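User: quick one, sequence for these C-alpha cells?
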C-alpha cells in the first residue's frame, strides 16, 4: 500500500524521519518497564508505523493491537532527544485504522451515538457498571464468554465507580452569579466529573464564586472527545470539538477553566493542533493555572487537617506543562502537611480507557506508585484529574489501606469553610 493512502500519518511524516531509533524512550515508558518487550516500547511502535507508511506491512489486527497498547502518558515525548511526537504518531495511526473501517461495533455505538446524545450517558453508565458487577458475581474467572463478549482480563478484581444519582449538570443553572464579578468564566465540567465526581464541580463553583468569579456552564456542552479521537475516530472527535467551540464562544467569556487534565489538554491543544477544529475565543486554563496565574487567589483559609502527597496527571504535567502550580496551592493551605513522593509524575496506569482493556498491566504500573506513596506519612493522595482519581480510589479500596483520594480543588473549597459568595 502506498504512502498516499495514509493521509493522517502523512501530516506527521516529519516525525517519522526525526526518530533516530536510539532507545532513549525505552526506560521512560511505563509499559516497557513492565514487559521489556520492544513492540510495547515507543521505538517499536514508531518502527511499525513507519513500516506501514512505507507500504512494507499492512494495517492488520496485529498492527491495531500494537498501536492500541499505549497509555498516551507522553513520557517518551518528554525524554526524546530528537523531539519526536510519538503520541501524535500513535493517534494518527489509530485514525488510519478507523479510516479503513477498523472501529469496533461497541466503539461505534458509544462514540457516534451515545456520547453524541449527552442525556443518554448517565443511564448508560449506570447500566454498564451494573452489568460489570453482575458479571463479577455470576461468571467464573475463566469464562469462555470472554471469547465472544468484551469482558476484559481481571474483571473479577475491579471495583466499578459509583455513578452519581444526580449528575452535576442537573444540579446547577447555566449561570452562577456573584455580586461584584471580576470575570465571567466558562466552566467545562467534563464527563468524569459530571457522572462520577459532581462534588469536584461543586468545589470548583465554590472556589470561583468565593473569588468573585461569575461562572457559566453552557447547556449545550458535550464530551470533549478525548476518548473518541484517542481511539482514532478523528471525524467524530472533530464534531464534538466544533459543538463545544460553538456553545462556549456564544457565551462571550473572559476565560474557560476545567478541572480535568485530559479535558484541558484537549481543549487547549488537541482541538487546534491535532484535530484542526479551531480555537476558543477565550483562553483555556486548568483550574490550578487559573487560580495561581490569572487571578490573585483569596487566602482567607481556615486550617484543615491533611497529610498529603500529590500525583501529577500526565496530561497536566507533560501535556500542559503544569507542575508547580498545584504544589503552590497545597503549600498555601494552613494545616495541610505536603510531602512530594518519588516519581510523582509517573503514570498511574489509567491511560483513559487503557485500564479497561489491559487491567493486569495497569495494576503493574500502579504498583510502582503505591510503593512510593507507602514510604510517606500521607493519608491523602491529591491530584487534578478525575480519571487518575478513579484509578487510585479503586486501588486503595482493593488494598483496604485507608488512604483517601481528593481533587486539589476540593481541599481549597474545604479551606474556604462555609462562606457562600454566590448572588442568590
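Assistant:
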Amino acid at each position: 500500500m502506498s504512502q498516499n493512502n495514509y493521509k493522517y500519518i502523512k501530516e506527521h511524516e516529519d516525525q517519522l524521519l526525526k526518530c533516530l531509533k536510539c532507545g532513549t524512550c525505552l526506560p521512560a515508558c511505563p509499559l516497557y518497564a513492565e514487559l521489556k518487550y520492544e513492540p510495547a516500547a515507543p521505538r517499536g511502535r514508531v518502527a511499525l508505523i513507519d513500516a506501514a507508511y512505507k507500504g512494507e506491512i499492512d494495517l492488520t489486527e496485529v498492527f491495531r493491537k500494537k498501536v492500541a497498547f499505549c497509555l498516551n502518558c507522553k513520557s517518551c515525548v518528554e525524554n526524546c532527544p530528537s523531539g519526536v511526537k510519538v503520541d501524535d504518531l500513535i493517534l494518527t495511526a489509530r485514525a488510519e485504522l478507523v479510516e479503513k473501517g477498523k472501529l469496533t461495533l461497541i466503539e461505534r455505538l458509544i462514540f457516534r451515538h451515545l456520547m453524541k446524545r449527552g442525556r443518554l450517558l448517565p443511564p448508560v453508565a449506570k447500566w454498564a457498571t451494573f452489568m460489570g458487577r453482575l458479571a463479577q458475581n455470576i461468571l467464573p474467572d475463566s469464562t469462555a464468554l470472554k471469547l465472544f463478549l468484551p469482558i476484559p482480563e481481571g474483571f473479577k478484581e475491579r471495583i466499578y465507580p459509583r455513578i452519581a444519582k444526580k449528575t452535576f449538570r442537573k444540579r446547577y443553572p447555566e449561570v452562577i452569579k456573584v455580586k461584584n464579578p471580576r470575570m465571567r468564566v466558562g466552566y467545562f465540567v467534563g464527563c468524569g466529573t459530571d457522572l462520577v465526581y459532581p462534588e469536584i464541580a461543586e468545589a470548583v463553583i465554590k472556589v470561583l464564586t468565593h473569588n468573585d468569579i461569575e461562572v457559566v456552564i453552557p447547556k449545550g456542552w458535550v464530551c470533549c472527545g478525548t476518548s473518541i479521537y484517542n481511539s482514532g475516530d478523528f471525524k467524530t472527535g472533530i464534531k464534538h470539538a466544533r459543538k463545544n467551540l460553538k456553545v462556549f464562544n456564544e457565551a462571550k467569556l473572559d476565560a474557560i477553566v476545567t478541572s480535568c487534565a485530559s479535558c484541558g489538554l484537549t481543549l487547549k491543544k488537541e482541538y487546534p493542533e491535532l484535530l484542526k477544529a479551531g480555537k476558543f475565543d477565550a483562553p483555556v486554563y486548568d483550574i490550578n493555572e487559573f487560580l495561581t496565574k490569572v487571578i490573585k487567589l483569596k487566602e482567607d483559609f481556615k486550617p484543615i487537617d491533611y497529610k498529603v502527597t500529590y500525583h501529577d496527571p500526565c496530561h497536566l504535567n507533560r501535556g500542559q506543562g503544569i507542575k508547580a502550580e498545584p504544589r503552590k496551592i497545597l503549600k498555601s493551605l494552613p494545616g495541610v502537611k505536603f510531602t512530594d513522593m518519588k516519581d510523582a509524575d509517573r503514570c498511574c496506569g489509567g491511560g483513559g480507557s487503557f485500564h479497561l482493556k489491559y487491567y493486569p498491566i495497569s495494576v503493574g504500573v500502579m504498583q510502582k506508585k503505591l510503593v512510593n506513596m507507602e514510604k510517606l506519612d500521607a493519608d491523602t493522595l491529591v491530584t487534578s484529574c478525575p480519571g487518575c482519581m478513579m484509578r487510585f480510589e479503586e486501588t486503595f479500596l482493593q488494598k483496604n489501606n485507608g488512604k483517601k483520594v481528593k481533587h486539589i480543588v476540593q481541599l481549597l473549597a474545604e479551606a474556604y469553610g462555609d462562606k457562600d459568595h454566590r448572588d442568590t
